[in-house]
Write the structure tokens for this entry.
Amino acid sequence: MEERTDDQLKALVKEKYGQIAEQEKAVNASSCCGAGGCGPADYTIMADDYSRMEGYVADADLGLGCGLPTEHAYIQPGDTVVDLGSGAGNDSFVARSLTGDKGRVIGVDFTARMIERARSNANNLGFTNVEFRQGDIENLPMAGGIADVVLSNCVFNLVPDKRKALAETFRVLKVGGHFSISDVVLNGELPDGLRTSAEMYAGCVAGAIQKHEYLSLIDRAGFTNVRIQKVKRIDIPDEILLTYVEPGDLETLKSGERGIFSITVYAEKREACCTPGCCGN
């Protein structure tokens, strides 16, 4: 398969998630992170259960996440929170319950239909301190140094230029601010069928990179105190995996430490001796 350009990958994600914005949670949760067409089985593949969390809004939960970053984000009353890849607003509304009326939440999403749905949810709830902006995570539509906390849930794996996205995350955080990001990473190489599939790319798997590489990119972006808060193996059902891999590759993919994982990562922006990219970063 011919390798896609960054612009082609972005167009693919925009198209897929525009479709997903029209779907309900049950459809998204039973497919490959909302991509659809992965198989007939009714499984929750990636998403964690938000329903017990304060601020949860069922209409904003499309079942697209792979973790609970808000649970680990140490959000305080009055904080300004930026939610990258905010979708229909699920994490943004949970964050709003933590930051309170005196705080502010800004959700950013690449897909116009997602922004429309999130804004509709916010209007229905009467929230005046939650806003949603359409934009590219590689070029965020906001000034630098405004966020106390940055959140993201199963989004960075979809971004072609992760270095640039992390640089933008660093830019918008205040000094002393931090992020909590849930994402899909790999341990060991994926079979070619998974790695090159456009559908699984939009479904949060084929855009994922190796865990050690992911953590290295965070370090090199200038963040400090980087630590993994949670690890969860993604157990994709055999009937879905067999759409993309040969039967002989199945056990290799699912055995031992090799496989697909969700991790939630915390990191801080601190005063540095120089700009990100030097001082050994």
Observations:
- The chain is about 30% helix and 20% strand.
- The mean pLDDT is 84.
- The chain has one domain: 6-268.
